[in-house]
Design goal:
4% of the residues are buried. By secondary structure, the protein is mostly helical. It contains four helices and three strands. It is elongated and about 65 Å long.
């Protein structure tokens, strides 16, 4: 258990401590959300994984990688790509 220290402080000092803590946490949460929302085109994913468009298409059709369609365009969330690679690496170890 951590030691608890109690000391007297004025209201302004307490407000500053709380504001700085909230600002830090909101920045961390915003960074995590932006990282999750990053989308890649098919070409970017192929370059990232060093595979052909045919291989990427096959992985998408078999459900190994989840794609998102907007009109006739196909996009991939970077987070989904990373998760898929972890699953593929895990299945290769078995």
């Amino acid at each position: 258990m951590k030691n608890l220290f109690i000391r007297a402080m004025d209201v302004l000092e307490l407000k500053n401590i709380i504001a700085e803590t909230v600002k830090t946490e909101l920045g961390r949460i915003n960074f995590i959300q932006n990282e999750k929302l990053e989308v890649l085109t098919r070409e970017e994913v192929c370059k990232l994984l060093n595979v052909s468009l045919v291989t990427l298409s096959t992985w998408t059709k078999t459900g190994k990688i989840k794609a998102h369609r907007i009109g006739n365009r196909v996009y991939y969330k970077k987070l989904n790509i990373e998760e898929a690679m972890k699953e593929i690496k895990g299945s290769l170890k078995r």
